[in-house]
Amino acid sequence: MSCDVYVSDDLLAPIRSGAVELLELDYAGRQIDHQWSGRLGTSAYGATLATPAPTTPVTVWVNDTSRRYAPASLGYLDISLTTRLDVALYPVPVPASGGGGGGPGLGTQSATRPQTPDEVAQLIAQQMRWGVWSEAEANGVRALVDAVIRGTAVADPDGVLGERVAQWREQLAALGIAVVADKTHRGSGSSGSSGSSGARRAGGEDRGEASGGMVIGAGT
Questions:
Q1: Is the pLDDT reported for residue 193 higher than 60?
Q2: 3-class secondary-structure state, position 57
Q3: What is the model's pLDDT at position 6?
Q4: CATH: 3.40.250.10, 2.60.40.1120, 3.40.190.10, 3.20.20.140. Which one for 2-93+125-210?
């Protein structure tokens, strides 16, 4: 058994990039499968992931190693019940020189750098209002924050996911945001949804969450 995972952008156009990797992990963060995105069918792109045996809930992480798109995570999934998943990735803003993501007063030395969850939300709204970040890029920032929170809760710092979390933290730092994980969340997925990634299961209802509970902290 296997499951095809199709990867698209926020406009649901296929992401034609070989830099996108797909990680399939169990609840404890152990790797079940790892594939690179390629052509699926005539015009779609993605990868085929193996179904674990015996069957166990898994989390699928989709990561653009070129850092153009924010990562997405889907969990907990019983992929033995479906042969297809569709995942949408949001673009990440290009950091301005000096960090902080651009806009007035957001350089690395600025006293207005966000320090609380409300301030992070205000930063995103401010960047959109100034036209620095598009709505899609704002969603990409939210997706990055969510990936760091969820990944930190489960990742072995020396494992493959731990390496990815460190890279995502670097991306956020370049945008002027630091993330503090909520230690009460464990596992490779969490309840709830922040809407930072898209996922649907072919032929029926989703079984799992695409992103979830998080605590955000920001600052120097």
A1: no
A2: coil
A3: 97
A4: 2.60.40.1120
